[in-house]
Design the sequence.
């Protein structure tokens, strides 16, 4: 009895189980082989073979669906990642990283056009190991990327090195070779693509392997889908950057607007302050204010201490911001004059050593200097206010000078009459002085000044009295200028006060005249007769100073001693000294000895050899030897009273005139 034929049903069931388990295609093929080996009848074998082929087709469709599902999931994830990114660099890195992951390639990269340079550059890479490749730049139309950009279509090559569809260049070939790439797929990043149109290519996305590979249509479509998402994300990121820039510009515009508003408010406040300053200064001029009123107003407006100095640096006014007295010493005349000259030449205030200085001018003449004690910056409106104060100060000083010059001229006539003939009407002169504000019965110092620049001295003397706190009057008399200075309530020693006043006047007048001024002082004296006698004494002192060569100095009669009286009418001091001491002077000059010095020490010691040798710091025998030499040169009568007096007078004159006896 024969065996029954094997049935195909178990095999068909097995095919279904393998298909459900997603078994490999080889296992599905094994079922057909087993059916043949088992001797399945031909009709059923054909059915098994058809079932196996159908199972293989179903398996392929299922796998394709699953792969498509995975790709769609990856694309959705990519879209989410790109939508969450706001920074362009983050967007580009996410695109390239996801492209490499989805296609499973060795590397992925993205190029973007450089509109300024006119070429394309490598923007982002993932998986690259070559620095040369990462820094690669391509001219438009070069390489596979150039073909993609020009045609706006994807291109793939299984072997870039042998593919002649695109233009190879040495630069690109070197980069690709250094990276070791073989198979390359490039797809365009398109913006604005629509039905019937291509759109704008904004870059190229690549996936590449280091071994030959044929990219399937599904892989090309997948990379194109990713590129479409990427193009939108890039455009969005750029739009966000543009929005940020616009917002930043808008914020800057708002800041500029706020700054402009602040500037307008500041300008309005400055204009208001300037208007207030103008009203104050105008009122000062109209109501006859003085420089102290100007200083107080400007110090308050600028909230800084202000001082006003005359041309020689003496303070005329010093006011604190609160309106009180500001302690300040006289400024160095040279520094102040130099700074004022800089202000004059620049026609504006200057900042030096923590102070603002503005020259007060009448034409080219420096009347005074305004000094604002403020180390920080002055804005334009405050600077103009400060400079306007200098103009007003100059106007007030000129008005004050005009009045003072008129008064001084009238008073000067009184002084000239007093000195010319004090005996004519002493009581009338005193009464006339009282009407002019000069009390001749009060103690006065009398100064007599002379200078080579005689035409400038009179005006300088008036400015000297006018510019300081000196209460006095000046007049031109007998080729000199006479200054009569009220001592006030002081009762000074004549030698001290007259000498100090003469020296101060010589210094200040010399500065004003810009030439040496010699001043002789006497006093105090009161009443027409004493004042006339004091003038005669000062005139003799001035002649003695001229004879002694003390031009440009100040002194009083007491300081010159009896020589002031003796030399009041002398003509030739140098000739007299040479005639009396000539032999000794020549001997000392030729031999380097000290005979003149020894003679002076001998007379000063009252003829004592012991005291003379102590003064000279020599042995007494040396003094005796020197005196013997003096006797040889001058004669045996050198120590007789008359001759000794003559020698002592010559020694004194020689010392006062600046002679040397060493």
Sequence:
């Amino acid at each position: 009895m024969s065996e029954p034929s094997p049935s195909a049903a178990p095999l068909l069931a097995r095919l279904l189980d393998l298909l459900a388990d997603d078994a490999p295609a080889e296992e599905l093929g094994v079922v057909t082989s087993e059916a043949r080996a088992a001797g399945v009848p031909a009709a059923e074998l054909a059915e098994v073979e058809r079932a196996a082929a159908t199972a293989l087709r179903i398996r392929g469709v299922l796998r394709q669906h699953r792969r498509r599902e995975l790709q769609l999931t990856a694309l959705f994830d990519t879209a989410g990642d790109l939508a969450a990114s706001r920074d362009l660099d983050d967007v580009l890195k996410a695109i390239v990283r996801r492209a490499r992951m989805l296609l499973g390639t060795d590397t992925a990269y993205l190029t973007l056009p450089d509109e300024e340079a006119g070429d394309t550059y490598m923007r982002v890479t993932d998986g690259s190991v070559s620095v040369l490749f990462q820094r690669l730049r391509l001219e438009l139309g070069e390489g596979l990327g150039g073909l993609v950009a020009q045609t706006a279509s994807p291109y793939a090559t299984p072997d870039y090195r042998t593919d002649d569809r695109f233009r190879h260049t040495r630069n690109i070939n070197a980069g690709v070779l250094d990276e070791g790439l073989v198979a390359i797929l490039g797809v365009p990043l398109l913006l604005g693509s629509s039905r019937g149109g291509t759109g704008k290519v904004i870059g190229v996305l690549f996936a590449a392997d280091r071994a030959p590979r044929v990219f399937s249509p599904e892989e090309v479509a997948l990379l194109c889908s990713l590129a479409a998402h990427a193009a939108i994300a890039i455009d969005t990121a750029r739009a966000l950057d543009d929005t940020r820039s616009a917002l930043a510009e808008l914020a800057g515009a708002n800041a500029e607007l706020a700054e402009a508003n602040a500037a307008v408010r500041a300008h309005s406040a400055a204009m208001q302050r300037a208007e207030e300053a103008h009203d104050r200064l105008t009122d000062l001029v109209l109501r006859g204010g003085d420089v102290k009123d100007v200083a107080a107003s400007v110090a308050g407006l600028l909230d800084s201490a202000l001082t006003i100095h005359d041309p020689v640096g003496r303070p005329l006014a010093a006011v604190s911001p609160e309106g009180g007295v500001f302690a300040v010493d006289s400024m160095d005349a040279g520094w102040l004059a130099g700074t004022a000259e800089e202000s004059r030449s620049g026609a504006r205030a200057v900042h030096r050593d923590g102070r603002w200085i503005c020259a007060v001018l009448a034409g080219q003449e420096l009347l005074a200097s305004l000094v604002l004690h403020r180390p920080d910056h002055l804005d334009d409106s405050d600077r103009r206010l400060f400079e306007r104060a200098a103009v007003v100060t100059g106007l007030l000083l000129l008005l004050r000078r005009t009045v003072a010059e008129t008064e001084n001229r009238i008073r000067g006539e009184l002084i000239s009459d007093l000195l010319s003939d004090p005996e004519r009407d002493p009581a009338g002169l005193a009464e006339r002085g009282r009407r002019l504000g000069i009390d001749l019965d009060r103690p006065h110092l009398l100064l007599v000044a002379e200078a080579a620049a005689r035409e400038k001295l009179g005006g300088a003397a008036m400015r000297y009295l006018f510019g300081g706190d000196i209460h006095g009057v000046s007049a031109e008399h007998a080729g000199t200028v006479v200054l009569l200075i009220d001592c006030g309530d002081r009762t000074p020693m004549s030698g001290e006060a007259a000498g100090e006043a003469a020296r101060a006047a010589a210094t200040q007048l010399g500065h004003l005249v810009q030439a040496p001024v010699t001043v002789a002082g006497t006093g105090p004296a009161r009443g027409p007769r004493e004042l006339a006698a004091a003038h005669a004494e000062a005139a003799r002192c001035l002649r003695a100073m001229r004879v002694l060569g003390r031009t440009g100095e100040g002194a009083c009669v007491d300081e010159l001693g009896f020589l002031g009286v003796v030399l009041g009418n002398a003509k030739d001091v140098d000739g007299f000294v040479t005639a009396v001491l000539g032999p000794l002077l020549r001997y000392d000059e030729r031999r380097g000895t000290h005979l003149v010095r020894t003679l002076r020490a001998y007379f000063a010691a009252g003829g004592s050899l012991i005291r003379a040798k102590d003064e000279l710091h020599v042995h007494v025998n040396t003094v005796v030897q020197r005196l013997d030499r003096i006797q040889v040169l001058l004669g045996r009568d050198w120590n007789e009273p008359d001759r000794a007096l003559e020698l002592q007078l010559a020694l004194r004159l020689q010392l006062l005139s600046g002679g040397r006896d060493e």
Q: What stands out?
A: The mean pLDDT is 80. The radius of gyration is 57 Å. DSSP finds 22 helices and 16 strands in the chain.
